[in-house]
Amino acid sequence: MRFPILAVRRLLAASVLVLAAGAAHALTVVPPTFDELVAKANVVVRGVVTKVEAKTVETSQGTAIKTYVTFKVERTLKGTTEDEVTLQFLGGKVGRRTLKVVGMPTFSVGDREIVFVGDNGRVICPLIAAGHGRYRLETDPATKVEHVARENHAPLASTAEIAAPLDHSTAALSSSAAMTREDFESRIIAAVSNSQTASQK
Description:
Helices cover 20% and strands 34% of the residues. The chain is an alpha+beta fold. It starts with a helix and ends with a helix.
C-alpha cells in the first residue's frame, strides 16, 4: 500500500522529534484483497534474510532511524531484481536510540519469506499494506512440509484470508490446512499473468 506523501512527511517529522525518547508510532493500513496485493506490488520475491542493519540517517526533517533488510533472492515472481534486494523500513535501534513504529514488520537473519514490495526507499514501509505484504515460509516439524503463514504466524489457508485483518488470528488452524509454497507461488504467477493480460486489452 502506498502511503500519502504528506502522511509520510508528518510521521517522519514526528519520529525525528521523539527519536531520543524511543516513543512509538503506528501504521494504519487497509487490508488488500489478493488481486490488489499482486497488482500494487512492483516486485514479488521469495528470499532468505541475510542481513538486518539499523542506521541513523539524515532527512530533510532531521535525524531518523531506518532498518535495512537484505534478502538473498531465491525466485522472482513479479518484476525484475538482482540476486540480492535490500528493503528500507522506518524505525529500529541504534545504540541507545530507538524508533518504534507499531505494525511495522520486523525480520531476523534466516527468515524465509515471500514479500510483495512497492516503492522501496520512497515510503516508510516498502511492503504493500505493511504486514499484509509479508508471508512467512514455515516447516511443520512433524510432517516436514513447508507451508505459508501470515505476518502473525497464522497458517494461510487460502488467498481470500489475505483481506482479513492481521489481528484476526487463525493460529489454531492446523498447518496441514495451510497453503503450500508451491500453491501460493502458482497463484501469484497466475494473478500477475491475468493482470498483464487485462492491461493489454
